[in-house]
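Hi F.,

I've been meaning to write this up properly since the lab meeting, where we talked about keeping a consistent format for the predictions we share between groups. The idea is simple: the sequence comes first, exactly as it goes in, then the structure tokens exactly as they come out, then a line or two of notes. No screenshots and no reformatting. I'm using this chain as the first example so we have something concrete to point to.
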Amino acid sequence: MNSGSPNSGGVNPGGVNPGSPNSKGKNAKAVVLLSGGLDSATAAAQAIADGYDLIALSFRYGQRHERELQAAQQVAQHLGIAEHHTIAVNLAQWGGSTLTEDSGEIPLDGVKPNQIPSTYVPGRNTVFIAIALSLAEAKQAEAIYLGINAVDYSGYPDCRPEYLEAFQHLASLSSKAGLNGQAPVLVAPLVTDSKVDIVHRALRLNVPIPLTWSCYQGQAEPCGLCDSCRIRDRALIEAGKPEWATSIGRDLYFRETQYTT
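Output, unedited:
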């Protein structure tokens, strides 16, 4: 496999490929985990730019709302992804996260550095990537694109480069393709990007940012207060797209920046 597409950018942290491993050129396949959010949509667009025919994979995992799955469908259609699977894996059965428990409250008081928030879903990425590995091997896809980001992430342990490196090793050991030295490669093009970098990349790749959904709530409009909204809104404003941020997010940003200057 080659060292990666020059369009993908980034470095190779801990052995996780941030760029394209496309060795077949035309008709090479890749699976992309498509949540409907900005990061996964950008990863999908990057995979297309890297020359892959994409298979999108989304999950109904017991999240509070269907809004992000609607966004995933819209993004897939916009990007021309013909094959899109939505798999039901009910992680809400045993709880453990405010994203899957109606009784819990989504934190709205800002991102807490160095803390794993209550929105962390136990084992979610591990379950999702394992299913993506199964799909990739069955479809003879050579790569799995992930929108995982370790720079501005909200303290999730399964968004770190060392986690991805460990899973790549698992993929090599646990799959038939891996025994032949051809395990699907985990590609994390955004893993070392800041959120502002991700917005800039999305703009270059013509990602339909207004179609994406990042809010932890399932209301008609994004709340502007949850961790995901705050991180997204700040990045949109700093990337020169304040009109795509929520009105609450704009107010919070300008209040905070005025206070600190």
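Notes:
The first helix runs from residue 38 to 49.
Residues 66 and 111 are 24 Å apart (CA to CA).

If this format works for you, I'll send the rest the same way.

G.
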